[in-house]
Known about the structure:
The chain has helices spanning 8-20, 24-37, 42-49, 53-65, 71-75, 91-98, 115-126, 132-141, 160-163. The protein is mainly alpha-helical. The N and C termini lie far apart (93 Å). The mean pLDDT is 86.
Amino acid sequence: MTPLQLRPHERQVLSRIAGSTPSARELTRAQALLWLDEGESVEEVAQRLLVRRQTVSNWLLRFRQRSDQDLGSRLRDAPRAGRPPTALGIIDPLLEEVIDTDPREYGYRHTVWTAALLRRYLREAHGLSVGLRSIGSALARLEICWKRPRHVLGQRSETWRQAKGG
């Protein structure tokens, strides 16, 4: 790989980025490029930054490939693929619409909505697959406070001996 030769303007902008960016990744990459421009080898820069030599080579390659972008964009990570945040804002109106109704009206054999039941409802009625944490976050955004149902039927009351005549 040919050595890096920055233009004076690029060197100035990289120095400014290295001195003022809040992103540690951008700072590290800018510093690596500045050291490479000063004539240090990829191995020396990698050793100095405690990264692999391949990492520094990848930074240099991406910096060169993105020559059509501004210097700040050339240092940043590229957008990554991943699961989109599908639940944020989408399930809020659906939950708000159903939370005050009885689940039996929708064919469920429950008298109160639970997070698991709401999750099942969203999957069956709207085709949305969401996690329990997403449902909890949506209920918090809607300022809906609820408690888990307590099963007290099987517990003895404090006065059970009196009821039995004892």
